[in-house]
Amino acid sequence: MTTVTQSVISGVPCPVGSVRDDEPHLLEDFLGETTFTVVMAGYPYLVQGCGCKVDGHVRFHEKDDMTGRDIRVWHVTSAAQGFQAEHIAAF
Q1: 8-19 pLDDT tens trace
Q2: Which of 82, 60, 83, 84 is nearest to 71 (CA)?
Q3: How much is the average pLDDT of 65-78?
Q4: Does residue 28 sit in helix, strand or coil?
Q5: CB 71 within 8 A of CB 63
Q6: Rounded to whole angstroms, how far apart are CA atoms 82 and 80?
Q7: Who contacts 26 (Cβ-Cβ below 8 Å, separation ≥6)?
Q8: Which carries the bigger pLDDT value, residue 69 or residue 3?
Q9: Which of 43, 51, 79, 80 places its Cα 20 to 30 Å from the Cα of 25?
Q10: Rounded to whole angstroms, how far apart are CA atoms 15 and 66?
Q11: pTM for the whole thing?
Q12: Phi and psi dihedrals of 59, rounded to 5?
């Protein structure tokens, strides 16, 4: 899979391309241990980790696949067409 070589920018919503290599249908598709792709600059970016539902969206903790450490936090929400994910600066 091609991945984005630029930095992930906080606060910029990105359309979700797939979840677990399939089209997402429900916000609940992003819960628990899973993977999804977002489209950034025209290229897919793979996000893997764990999501939980919070206040009408999914808070998703992206994990490093080698160490399991947290990399970044995403908020996944319903969009006009499909879903979008936005990296949120969470300290």
Answers
A1: 888 999 999 999
A2: 60
A3: 91
A4: helix
A5: yes
A6: 6
A7: none
A8: 69
A9: 43
A10: 26
A11: 0.88
A12: -95, 120
> Is the distance from CB of 46 to CB of 3 less than 8 angstroms?
yes
Token pair of 61 as six digits: 């903790």
Looking up tokens 């600059």 gives 41
Asked whether the CA dihedral 63, 64, 69, 74 is positive or negative, the reply is: negative
- Residue in the structure block whose two tokens are 């009408």: 56
Please state, in angstroms and rounded to a whole number, the distance separating the CA atoms of residues 84 and 73.
14
Three-state SS string over 50-88 comes to EEEEECCEEEEEEECCCCCCEEEEEEEEECCCCEEEEEE
Cα separation, 82 vs 49, whole angstroms? 20
